[in-house]
Prior knowledge:
Elements: H1 2-15, E1 52-58, H2 62-78, E2 82-88, H3 94-106, E3 113-116, H4 119-127, H5 135-140, H6 145-148, E4 154-155, E5 158-159, E6 162-163, E7 167-168, E8 170-174, H7 175-180, H8 192-202, H9 225-229, H10 247-262, H11 269-274, H12 279-284, E9 290-293, H13 298-302, E10 313-317, E11 332-333, E12 336-339, H14 346-358, H15 374-382, H16 391-398, H17 416-432, H18 437-456
Parallel strand pairs: 1-2, 1-3
Antiparallel strand pairs: 3-12, 4-5, 6-12, 7-11, 8-9, 8-10
Amino acid sequence: MKKKMAILLSSALLTMSILSACSSGSNQGNTGSAAVTTSAAPAATQSDAKPVNLKFYTWDNETNQVARQKMIDAFQAKYPNIKVQNISLVPGNSVESMKKMDVLMSSGEEVDVLEYGNIDETLARAAAGVLAPLDEFYAKGNVKPEEEYYINPKVNGKYYATMLTSSPYFVLINEDALKEANLSLPSFDWTWDDFREYAKKLSKGEGNDKRYGAYFHTWGEYTNLIAYSDLKSPYLTSDLKPGFNDPSFAYFFNLRRAMEKDDKSVKPLADVVGAKLSYITEYLNGKAAMLATAPFMLDNVMNKEKYPHTFKSVIAPLPRASKTGEQGITNIGGSYVSVASNSKHKQEAYDFIRYMTTEQEARLELSGYKKADPKAIVDRLYGKAADIIDVTSLQTTIFDKRIKTNFDPAISVSYGNQLKAVLEKGFSKFMLDNTTAEEAQKWMMDESDKIAKQNAK
């Protein structure tokens, strides 16, 4: 089993695409305000139990480690026989952390609880057999996951993770630049064509002093944000066939090219890749006026010591696909926590992830738990930064009743991370090799067919 696990994980490592450090992340509207409840047993029933030590692997940075430790301390007070060790493999970098975690697990390292940055990573490990199914624990605690969490990763009909954070995408805009261009804050009826026009008007200057109207990062989400918000899967059709022939890919590819080549309102992809640019510094240093992103970016906005800036960020909804498209559709990413299949303490590990996903007081991001009070979390997290984050536009955007995603976790395969890599490579061919959108789509369809056949063996 250990040899098989090593082979599967090595394959996952070789095909791993450059993923978000948090989550298209994604991430359904948060509407609940019910009191937080868990299926955890009271602490009194734990007092006579044998001591258990859990190893919890994350990529927490220094700030997150402090908040996470508060959550762990509260859990340990409730479960005095369980001690949790928070092991941050590569602080602040989920991609490198997951690679290290794969190596550790393939070598037989004892692991109990793992955090993954998006659903593709989670499903790939579940299919590789390194995660334990949660169905038994859900049934024992009378937990109905579809009623508890926004997105529930499943493989072959079994649940393998609980949603820890929820990250609905929106557009962060430099308010100073917006006022300077005499533009109003966009509403739910704006489109990607409108986004292009805004980017033109927000662009200013030349050379090293130029401020671009918008910034697109290298992640797969930015190759076609419509696919991640409007489609049930950004890679697949409902019958699990490759879906890169969807018309939205040609539209968004051509939009990106026009903004870069014709309008010169976004930094060239070649520069972004060649200089290994950071979306954080490009926006907060005033090099780009708009950034499609999610709540994970707001921690960076608040960190004025590391990213000094004086402008206020206002928040607009993610643009809709067209003037006839449904308003409020967005990409909802998030992070997930799972129990390792080789854990010797699966019940205790489940108790911990259940507590961690339902507890709200020490959170640094929005919850993936439907019964949380999201507005209270936003007030606590961002209310103190009202001078640089417009909390009103944030709340009216992410809590609007129209906010939802069309993403369906049932339309997924274990090799989704490989398909994301195909999307990223196909877009690079389109932008850097000057192919047509149709040629890029054909290449992506052909490559996806090969991957599907390889995984069917």
